[in-house]
Amino acid sequence: MILPAAASVSHSIMDEELQKALASSLEDTTAEDQFQTDLQRALQESQSQPQSKLSPPQPMPPIETASASSKPDSFLSERAQLEKERLARQKRLRGDTNDRISPLAPTPSTSTADSESDDDNLDKPAAKRQHLLSPRQGRTPQQSRSKQPTSVINGTPKPSASSSASTNRPEMYWRGEIRQTANMHVDLEKDTKPTFRLSDIIGERSDVVFAIISSYSTDYEFAYKMFSPATPVIIVSHPATENREPSMRFIQQNWIRITPKLLYNYSCMHMKFMLLFYKPGRLRIVITTANLVPLDWRDIENTTWVQDVPLRATPIARDSRAQDFPSHLEKALSALDVQSGLDSFRTTEHGSFLPLQSVSDLRRKYDFSKVHVHLVSSLSGKFEGWPEVVRVGHPRLMKVVMDIGAKPQQGWEVTLECQGSSVGKCNRVWLKEFYHSASGASAQDWIGKPKKADRLPWPDKRGIKIIFPTLRTVRESRLGEAGGGTMFFKRADWASNGFPRELFHNSKSKRGGVLMHSKMILGTLRRKPPLLSAKGKAKCEEDEDDSVTESESDDGDSDIVERKVTGWVYVGSHNFTTAAWGSFQAKSTAFTPVFTVSNYELGVVVPVYDAKEADDIVCWERPPKSYESQGDQPWFQGESAVLNELDRIQRILHS
């Protein structure tokens, strides 16, 4: 594909920039001084507390069109300098911004890990282009607005403890909260809702007594600074080397890294979550779409769910038959082999001081009665038999949709809007399979019955809208093509026979010219349209009856009014792919289903009760516009001259 001249980068300009970067990289003392200055600035930004009044933001530069070549050139110049500084930092700490570790603590004899490398794949997995972006290109994330938060349960404003900026008390989320992450490139006029900063989520470092965290891609220097050096931390991560065997090892004093077992060579540990244990006994659960890298908390848009859970007055007995939020969380942690990390810490000075001695202590010790979202996990592996199958992937989503009363009744259907940052091989058989589950209908209806499977309804663009940015949207974003390194799609998949191109819709953030790394699915119930007239026109009636069932509640909160569920929102790490959600195998029968999942993924499903509540939660402009109506094509990262030039510089600087 031939890009417009303005989108391509002059090699002569790039060579000049590269020569400058290489020459300056020889000045070790200057590089070290510059690194210290930049590191201090980054720490101040990431750890600053909310202000009762916002300081005036820096003027935001206008969005440049494809005819303005200064954006790629200036970005690349800054990137060359940043790369020089990063190499100086890597030399000093033996770590890098992608997934390197500085092994300052002895490796336990039980560790199966060898020395780490910086292999970081996503679509095999495809390499994630974590090009660092200059803070000079916009306002700081700290300038993102903090307004009164909205309850996840009922969508109504509630008092904010962060009106407690005057009292310095941390904001609590006892009923759960979904927000977008703070971002330095959003439009001020559109950035009107409260946001999350990582430093605000974690809070005062000295209050955190233990943490279990997970991230696909991790900048360890960035992550270390978020916690006190005395705090024991277990981090679950994707393997950083070609050796994909499960491992557990100390990577830093008080830090244990775990890489779980993966089913396939292309499988991913893609979960992004935090379990933060605080001194008074409180547990904070964080499920997010953001990795532990500065890019995800500063330059691209992500979504995060946070809820605080109190300690029980008295632990309850274990219940192996439980199917609630904590039981599913315990199963996910067990699959990740978090227990091995807990066992290792129990042999250290932390020993009996850990608030969690066993994964099964979560449900016993903590009171989850106020958690009204539903956990959905994908665990890399093969699952046989219905009790196992309905615990993972899209069959788990099916069970949740049924449990919250969102299964469409006679004459109704579900419409899905699926926002993500990666698109894979999306075949029509799998789309039918997923849509059936998202409708709350069991696969027992069609598994082992070829004729019924063939007759599963095809979810046209009324049923499924796949939301992914177009080439034009990426180019017109604040960072242009240089900011599109975390959006994955291949032209070969797009051009393949039978690919559902008609389902694709443009991804545009409500907050302006930023690209979204958020993974969300909005499912809304609507009446099936009547048969089309001869002119192809029909009008859907509004909901006037009781065909949508009421939501379930298992704790009898007096302030929760029983209302009809009109849909649901999924937020988490799942992209809209087979690798993330899993698929039934051909040898499955209605009696013995076989279901395989490639990746580890984690997210929550929130029931919604009206259209406004659903629209408030999602992060994209609605209704999304189809590619067909805009005459556009998807963003193909591999065809970007800007990103390819950045990669060329990086390879040279690493050689």
UniProtKB/TrEMBL annotation:
<dbReference type="GO" id="GO:0005634">
    <property type="term" value="C:nucleus"/>
</dbReference>
<dbReference type="GO" id="GO:0004527">
    <property type="term" value="F:exonuclease activity"/>
</dbReference>
<dbReference type="GO" id="GO:0003690">
    <property type="term" value="F:double-stranded DNA binding"/>
</dbReference>
<dbReference type="GO" id="GO:0017005">
    <property type="term" value="F:3'-tyrosyl-DNA phosphodiesterase activity"/>
</dbReference>
<dbReference type="GO" id="GO:0003697">
    <property type="term" value="F:single-stranded DNA binding"/>
</dbReference>
<feature type="region of interest" description="Disordered">
    <location>
        <begin position="22"/>
        <end position="173"/>
    </location>
</feature>
<feature type="compositionally biased region" description="Polar residues">
    <location>
        <begin position="137"/>
        <end position="159"/>
    </location>
</feature>
<keyword id="KW-0227">DNA damage</keyword>
<feature type="compositionally biased region" description="Low complexity">
    <location>
        <begin position="102"/>
        <end position="114"/>
    </location>
</feature>
<feature type="compositionally biased region" description="Low complexity">
    <location>
        <begin position="46"/>
        <end position="55"/>
    </location>
</feature>
<comment type="similarity">
    <text>Belongs to the tyrosyl-DNA phosphodiesterase family.</text>
</comment>
<feature type="binding site">
    <location>
        <position position="519"/>
    </location>
    <ligand>
        <name>substrate</name>
    </ligand>
</feature>
<dbReference type="GO" id="GO:0006281">
    <property type="term" value="P:DNA repair"/>
</dbReference>
<feature type="region of interest" description="Disordered">
    <location>
        <begin position="533"/>
        <end position="558"/>
    </location>
</feature>
<feature type="active site" description="Proton donor/acceptor">
    <location>
        <position position="517"/>
    </location>
</feature>
<protein>
    <submittedName>
        <fullName>Tyrosyl-DNA phosphodiesterase-domain-containing protein</fullName>
    </submittedName>
</protein>
<dbReference type="InterPro" id="IPR010347">
    <property type="entry name" value="Tdp1"/>
</dbReference>
<keyword id="KW-0378">Hydrolase</keyword>
<feature type="compositionally biased region" description="Polar residues">
    <location>
        <begin position="26"/>
        <end position="45"/>
    </location>
</feature>
<feature type="binding site">
    <location>
        <position position="272"/>
    </location>
    <ligand>
        <name>substrate</name>
    </ligand>
</feature>
<feature type="active site" description="Nucleophile">
    <location>
        <position position="270"/>
    </location>
</feature>
<keyword id="KW-0234">DNA repair</keyword>
<keyword id="KW-0540">Nuclease</keyword>
<dbReference type="Pfam" id="PF06087">
    <property type="entry name" value="Tyr-DNA_phospho"/>
</dbReference>
<feature type="compositionally biased region" description="Basic and acidic residues">
    <location>
        <begin position="80"/>
        <end position="99"/>
    </location>
</feature>
<keyword id="KW-0269">Exonuclease</keyword>
<feature type="compositionally biased region" description="Acidic residues">
    <location>
        <begin position="541"/>
        <end position="558"/>
    </location>
</feature>
<keyword id="KW-0539">Nucleus</keyword>
